[in-house]
Structure formats: C-alpha cells, structure tokens
Amino acid sequence: MKAIQIHAAGGPEVLRYDEVPVPEIGPGEVLVRVHAAGINPPDWYLREGMKVMPAEMRPALSFPLIPGTDMSGTVQAVSPDVRGFAVGDEVFGMLRFPGFDGRTYAEYVAAPASDVAHKPARIDHVQAAGAPMAALTAWQYLVELGHDVPSPFTGRVHRPAPITPGMTVLVNGAAGGVGHFAVQLAKWKGAHVIAVASGRHEQFLRELGADEFIDYTRTRATDVVSGLDLVIDTVGGPDSSRFLTVLKRGGTMLPVFFAQYDPQETARLGITVSNIQVRSSGPQLAEIGSLLEEGTLQVGVDSTYPLPDAGSAHTRAAQGHLQGKIVLTVAS
Questions:
Q1: End-to-end CA distance of the chain
Q2: Within 13 Å, how many C-alpha atoms sit on residue 220's CB side?
Q3: Is the pTM of this model over 0.90?
Q4: What's the rounded Cα separation, in Å, for the pair 160 and 145?
Q5: Residue 147 located in a structural domain
Q6: Which CATH number characterizes residue 35's domain?
Q7: 108 and 187, same structural domain?
Q8: For residues 98-137, b (16+ Cβ closer than 10 Å) or e, as one string?
Q9: CA atoms in the 13 A half-sphere facing the CB of 34
C-alpha cells in the first residue's frame, strides 16, 4: 500500500509518499481501508520531533514512522474477537491517542475496535475524518471526560463544568478544529455563546450557532465582555490569562493549548482552571456521531489535499487561521 512516512524529524518536506506493507490486524482490531485522514496538531509535533515538549518528556521516536490519528474508511477485515463491526461497515475514529501509533496517513490501517464508531451516513468520509480528535477534545472538556486519568499538565482529573441554559460561554479561537465544535456543543447545552475569531469567520460561526461574534483584529474581547461563566481558550500562549478578568467568581477557564496561570491569582478570583489530554473513545465518538447524524453538529472543512500532498497540507496548517479542519483524501 501507499503511505506517508517520516524518516527523520523536520519540516513538511520530510513527509514521504512510500510503499509499505499492508498492516496485519491483531486481537481487538479491524482493518480499515482509509478514505480520508484528518490532520491535527500532534501530527506536526511528531513530524518536528516533539520539540514542543520539554526534552525530558519527549518520547523516543523510531523512524521511519507513519503519522496520523484520525481517519474515516471502510472495514476490510475483523479480528475474531471483535463484536459490533463487520466487513463493509463505514467507520471513523481517533486511533491510539494519546500516543503516536495511529498510522492513519495510509491506504490501510489496523484500528482498535474500541477507538472507532460507525460513520454517520449523513456525512461523507472527508467530514468524518475531520471530526474525531477535535470533537472528542471539545466533548471531553465540556460534556464528559469518560475516564479518571489525571491530566499530565496538572496532575488532576478534569471534571467538566455543567453547562446549563442561560450560562454564557466564550470560545476563543472559535473557527478552528476544537473551537468550532466547542461553539456547537455549548449551544447544544443551551448556553449563550460568544465566538472570538477573525472577521472572515463570522458567517461560518453564526451559522454554527454563535449568539455573539467578536473580531479580535478590531476589538479586544476583554474590553467588551464580563461576568462570563466559562471560557474555552483554544489559542493559549502568554496572553491567555487576560481572560481571567472576564470570568465571574465561580467561573471556569479551560485552556486547550499550552498556557500558564498563577494558582494564587485564580484562587483569589475564585476561578477554576482545568485541562485535559484527549483520549481515544469509540463510545464517545458514537455519541458524537449521533449528533452529526441528526445535524446538531457539523464539521467545518478548511481544505483537502490528496495523500501524496501531505507536505502541502502541513504547510497550510502552519499558516494558521483555519476554518475547521484540514483533511487528506486517500481513496474514493
């Protein structure tokens, strides 16, 4: 089969279109013919050699390796111990995460049955491949964590703050992968949703249910909002703490990207800061799939690239300002 491999860490140019063996499935696995593979930040962290992590925390990488965690495709073979899936089923999933052994940038992938769900018939493979990591991240932050594994960033187990009708939720970086799902899930739960993004994304986000829109290139969100119940910040960075001032006492800050907060300051303000490491979950993806099937959730697709052009897809990702997800098309 054909697959994208990384033979050494580096820029998008190290993504090579190679001939490799079709994987064999083991217990608990299904073989999937991949129709589309979603691109996520951990893919380019891996390609760069995990430089985003402190040196002492970086995993040992063995090259060559096939990147990717998200995919949508058709089941070709099923291990005898697997129940609930059959040859010909269309499935989607985030494979073996946290970890870097998903191997979805390929024509075929061996997938743990516990990590996949039946693909909603209402959406195509490109949309389905764009959903898993981003949607699961928003789900595990806002709806249900689904496990008791402490966050590696805080050492504590995250507990989603219940979103109830009438609450006000701000999503910073609302047009991106996690952001656009967070907008929709908060709206589904009955919140009044404020979306923060650049102006070109306003129509997209209002169509997804945002009640208010703030163009950060023209207006500082912290100048015009206050008394919020919850902020989910997908941008992070050194300025993320500015959103603490717009939360009411008892409010919650959910940083998705790396950000640091002074525990004494958050305690003084009465604000809870919590984050997660998203984990694969077929059952949660099945719940998300039901919302995709009924049209409650939609998948924004920024752009698509054929599998051999994975380098170009990573170049697009590095430019930022995405509207939804970037997806590799693999098979028709």
A1: 15
A2: 8
A3: yes
A4: 7
A5: no
A6: 3.90.180.10
A7: no
A8: eebebbbbbbbbbbbbebbbbbbeebbbbbbbbbbbbbbb
A9: 34
Domain count for the chain: 2
Residue-by-residue pLDDT tens, the chain, 332 positions: 999 999 999 999 999 999 999 999 999 999 999 999 999 999 999 999 998 877 777 888 899 999 999 999 999 999 999 999 999 999 999 999 999 999 999 999 999 999 999 999 999 999 999 999 999 999 999 999 999 999 888 889 999 999 999 999 999 999 999 999 999 999 999 999 999 999 999 999 999 999 999 999 999 999 999 999 999 999 988 788 899 999 999 999 999 987 788 889 999 999 999 999 999 999 999 999 999 999 999 999 999 999 999 999 999 999 999 999 999 999 76
174 and 74 belong to one structural domain: no
For residue 219, give its domain range: 159-273
* Structure tokens given for 21: 């063996």
End of a domain among 248, 273, 298?
273
Instruction: Give the CATH number of the domain where residue 259 resides.
Output: 3.40.50.720
In a domain, 232, yes or no: yes
Kindly state whether residues 178 and 266 are assigned to the same domain: yes
Task: In whole angstroms, give the CA distance from residue 15 to residue 313.
Answer: 10
**Amino acid (one-letter) located at 62:** S
